[in-house]
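Reply to dn_fold:

You asked what the input looked like. This is it:
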Amino acid sequence: MLKGLSASSHRGVISLFGKHFVQTGIFDHELGQTLRRAYDVRLTGDYAVGITVSREEAEDLLKAAHKFVTRVRAYLEREVESHD
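and this is what came back:
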């Protein structure tokens, strides 16, 4: 089911994703953790003074992001197809 959700911040999007897609079983807990981890690493990269994100951590997160996008895209394609 496509949902008409809206959020005004990244943290809000993450919260809505957890509530409406992870807690309901549409996506597994791992996907919610991936989204939260990406946000946390982004904050570290943008705002933490003297702290860097290692190449290995960035590569791991990139792999997780690809998996996230693949799963969400497949879900959206199924949902759109079922509404046609």
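The chain has a mean pLDDT of 90.
Hope that clears it up.
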